[in-house]
Amino acid sequence: QVQLVESGGGLVQAGDSLRLSCAASGRTFSSSVLGWFRQAPGKEREFVATITWNGGATSYADSVKGRFTISRDVAKNTVYLQMNSLQPEDTAVYYCAAGPSSRLVRSSPLYWGQGTQVTVSS
Question: How confident is the model at residue 29 (pLDDT cuts 50, 70, 90)?
Answer without folding.
Answer: low
